[in-house]
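WARN no homologs supplied; continuing
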Amino acid sequence: MDQYLESLRQVENASQERIKDFKILAGVSRVELYNGGRQVQFQSGAADVINYFLRMPNCHVCVTSANWSTDFIQGALDGNGVSNQPPISVYCNELKFSKRTSLSTGTIYPRLVVASDKAAVIETYREVLASRYGSKPRLVYAGDSLTDLPALLLADVGLLVGQSDNVAKWCKLLDVEFSKPRFDENDKTLYRLLDWSSAINIIENH
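OK structure emitted
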């Protein structure tokens, strides 16, 4: 699986180069990106789950995304009623902006291109928190696509949310069973949820 997903890096890089060459995102302001993000509608219940854990002490929430704008993601979070206290860390690709005009040049800084990039961010985040608190934190990761699978399997609690048949197929090929602790991996468990309604209960009782 890792080899297959990594092979997509060249494809994704080429796609970003085409976006730059055709100036598809050139001339866009941060405000426009933010307002565009506010139009995004989260899956029902997702914002409630995020806010629930944001209110918990020593609980840190971060977003990893192959999207190309922190401003767009922040707009999506705000537009769906996600609290900004404490602030959520966002890891994504980023557009380059002109210092003269403050508008996008259309160039994208590639930070999260393929699935392994997301997994690397999560592993680094875990190490930072372990260093801060002196103990290894419990990691929960929620995702809905194949690019999330390595991070879902890396997490202590992985939540595959929605109708993700392609991911389910890969799990079967990897002999990963849903809702069954993997004893050879410190009881890491991947759950498959149709929606977010049971997410809090699963996380708290794992």
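The mean pLDDT is 93.
OK
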